[in-house]
Design a protein that fits this description.
about 210 residues, 2 domains, homodimer, 9 strands, seven-stranded mixed sheet, alpha/beta, Rossmann fold
Chain lengths: ~210, ~210
């Protein structure tokens, strides 16, 4: 019998701790999604090793520009990889490129990202550091759909994390990462079971009352 | 023996539910602060009744401009009321005026405000509605020191509140208000016992490890 589970492509540039968390959840055959492939713009990404260990196909897309937005030609390569494999959901896990082009058109409403703050606070590259420097007492993380804004897409899940007086960037990041892994896996599960309903900017979670009772 | 507790003036324009929470806490003689007076810019503020019921002196400062910033002459009246009564701490509880002038100079680092979101998200007048419209999944409230910015002063305490799919502005506001009353009372207590240490934008809470053990 063919595997009917939701087909996920993960895009990562670095360490890939969220990739690891999601791939780990997908190893359970009762989890409603599986990771089809890892795509990276960084040939030295530790995520590549994780993929190899897990038997997950991986692709290194040699990116023609050093930083920032992904050139359209490179986005098209990723589109091609995903479409050929029947990918249902694209998960960004520390992918350090801004998507603006064809990937967004072809996978609209099917791309998720995670951000290490409670958006809309502290957008951008160094969210955890910004939260600390601002003096926030509560921070957290956000899983959101990706749209043409930077860190501005509709929010799927958020989790709060207390900022303690003795927290530095590293200790706060650790607490945030832990919550990230939890809510990112949950968001993939919700998507894979068709339970996310986007209405304008609000994302409703269907069947929230009974789904955990089975 | 004279009452040595921290002397608080509350400024409110409306309903005054935070005023009520703080005045309620202060009724306990073991609480380290007491409300000396209520000052309002609104002769119809329900907070005035609450003050009368509690035997708290109150002042209605007739404000010469309809909205927004408090004119300097009116701020001076409030300064005068507070200084004559040896006020240690000014607590804004739904005070719908922006302070920019002499009150800030004379009471710098001794004025607190509460905002019904997790700042810096959703500043301004309709924070709860903004959070809902943005599609936030976690919101909350913030007690902060007042400085010359709008809702931008150093953060003293924050509390998170989950936003549920069926929340509207009213139901979310109720949840936020409940947390507001809790953290505002706690912030006054921390100030009154000298346990707030502002370092740049971060406010540290002294003696956090043992204070609850007694």
């Amino acid at each position: 019998m063919p595997d009917q589970r939701c087909r996920v492509a993960v895009l990562a540039s670095g360490r890939g701790s969220n990739f690891k968390a999601i791939a780990g959840a997908c190893r359970d055959e009762n989890f409603p999604a599986r990771v089809i492939c890892l795509i990276t713009d960084n040939p030295a990404a530790p995520a590549l090793e994780l993929a190899a260990d897990d038997g997950i196909e991986s692709f290194t897309v040699p990116v023609t520009e050093k930083k920032g937005r992904l050139p359209e030609a490179d986005e098209l390569k990723i589109v091609d990889i995903c479409e050929k494999r029947g990918v249902d959901l694209i998960v960004l896990a520390g992918f350090m490129r801004i998507l603006k082009g064809p990937l967004l058109d072809r996978f609209e409403g099917r791309i998720m990202n995670i951000h290490p703050t409670l958006l809309p606070s502290f957008k951008g590259l160094h969210g955890v550091r910004q939260a600390l420097e601002y003096g926030a007492k509560v921070s957290g993380c956000t899983v959101h759909f990706v749209d043409r804004t930077v860190d501005g897409g509709a929010i799927i899940l958020q989790a709060a994390v207390p900022v303690d007086d003795d927290d530095d960037e590293n200790s706060l990041l650790q607490k945030v990462n832990k919550e990230e892994h939890r809510i990112y896996v949950e968001a993939v599960e919700l998507f894979a079971t068709g339970r996310l309903l986007q209405e304008g900017r609000r994302v409703r979670i269907l069947g929230n009352d009974f789904s955990r009772k089975g």
